[in-house]
Amino acid sequence: MSFYFQPTALVGAIAIAMGFSTSVSATTEAQTSAKSSLSTIVVTASRGEQNIENVPARISIIEPKILDQSSITSFPHILKNDASINMVQSGGFGQQASIFLRGTESDHTLVMRDGVRLNTATSSAASLPFIDTTDIEQIEVLKGPASVLYGTDAIGGVVHIISKTPQKSGAFVTGEIGENKTYKSSIGADFAENGVYAQIRGQRLESDGTPILNNQKRNYSYDQKGYSAKLGVEKDNYSASIDYSTNEGLNEFNKYGALEVTDFKNEIVNLKGSVKLVDQFELNARLSQFKDEADYLVSPSYIHSISQEAEVFGKWSFTNSQNILLGTTQRKLEAKTSALNEEIDSAGYYIQHQLNTDKLHTQVGLRVEDNEKFGTHTVAQGAVRYDFSPITSVYTNIGTAFKAPTLNDLYANWGGNPDLKPEESISYEIGIDQKLPFNILVGASTFYTEIDNLITSKCISNCPSWSSSDWKNINIDQASILGAELYAKWKLEDYFISTNYQYAKSKDEQTNDDLLRRPRHSLTVSAGIQNDVYGLSTSIIAKSKAKDFADDENDPLTNLPGYATVDFNAYWNVNPNIKLFTNIENMGDVKFKTAYNGSNTYYINGGRQASVGVTFKY
């Protein structure tokens, strides 16, 4: 189900909108203000609702006000708002994107949507550029090891997409047009009454795209469409829901110097339920399936991945301040490509204890993971947050995590090594949060991570030549990451300023070289004015230089230069039913290198993307 706007139709719609009254419904906006005044609730850190101020770890939120700025904005670009994430994308719309969280590897971050794992069975990384942003409520970024609750892949942390659940009945339609002949339209309807809700969404995005290599001028286009549906019930003692979403499209990219086209499709089915058997005990269950398929239209190859999970966990609140979480996850991963046809079954069993008092918040957990190919692994984590006063809070945590080799790591034609060992890590962190006068909130944390048996690729023959070189996946003895994070926030009525800085030194302990594509310094700054009628904001994203591959065997690394970009956003709620908005990503049209492609060729970013749009809602 999709609704497509032509540019002329959108311009006409904006013209009509300008003729409407500028009065704003007091009831609607008061409801919005009340919601924004509530404490931020997160679910990723403990598998249940928790005030973010009580989490004994560093967790950040990409809020609805950021997500609602532009429907065209891609998921990788949204994640750049967090300084702890280095997003490496080989071009603009639809191009391959890798997430490096806190200096860890690109497959060390678990990406989920409502509890469903989006990391594929082949590469163990999520297909980030193909994730639609139409129906996202907020994004939670949990930093640090999270294998106790989520198993493999969560060495660096978790990026959890929380979708919207209808709160009232209504409907909307949005259209947006931008540079490079980029158009997106979306339409949706919600129903919510007496604890029963239903939702349907449809969307379509088209773009001529931009050049992706520094020595080419050809644009690489992107075309996507999809829909989603949700049905559920939410009562005091029980809840249940079923979600379905699918996205598909065509994406052009450069494959070893030649044009390739991907016919992609992803599909999520997620069935969840919970019941409160007694006042102190709640039982939760989830059954989900995620398909990620890519068929290449020029070369006769394909990559198909299926992840199936069944999970049951119970939460026993045996006192007013303590609870125990006990659960199990059964997982089956299947991968089919032109080079392999494999599957892996695993089972995880975990337990976690939580204590929450007025001043003390603790979290201690243990997980045993049984993988049919690699045997049994045990991970543990302990964390404490203590509020010295209403304005000063400190926390510390220590945890282990692991990542099983992917099916690509083991069996791919290019570098496959069936003798690989799982990666294992241990992380330490300590932090402080401080409230200052004049509505200022500041915080600082420092962290250290050691990763054993880190999986990396090594050239074993014909190394000076990219076209004929042979590579093999190997385990290196150890990598280490030493880092620190600082943030400061200020808000007064409608005005706000927020800044976040991260330093991360990621090293191969064998060679003492920096790990690739990980800048040591990252900074984000945002400022503006936002209220129920209008808003203006700007944000700065800055990265220092980073290392990458090079051609010369005597100097195997090259520098990717640092960069800084500026985004701008503005909106105007003309009346309760009409919203006008505009966005400019990368206002200065800064062109920078994102990754090395051999033979003095680099991938580059997509440049400026300016757009304007309108939303009609009822």
UniProtKB/TrEMBL annotation:
It is a multi-pass membrane protein. Keywords: Cell outer membrane, Ion transport, Membrane, Receptor, Signal, TonB box, Transmembrane, Transmembrane beta strand, Transport. InterPro entries: Beta-barrel_TonB, Beta-barrel_TonB_sf, Plug_dom, Plug_dom_sf, TonB-dep_rcpt-like. It is found in: Cell outer membrane. Residues 1-26 form the signal peptide. Residues 53-158 form the TonB-dependent receptor plug domain. Its main location: membrane. CDD domains: ligand_gated_channel. It comes from Acinetobacter portensis. Transmembrane segments: none annotated. This is TonB-dependent receptor. The keyword Cell inner membrane does not apply. Belongs to the TonB-dependent receptor family. Residues 210-586 form the TonB-dependent receptor-like beta-barrel domain.
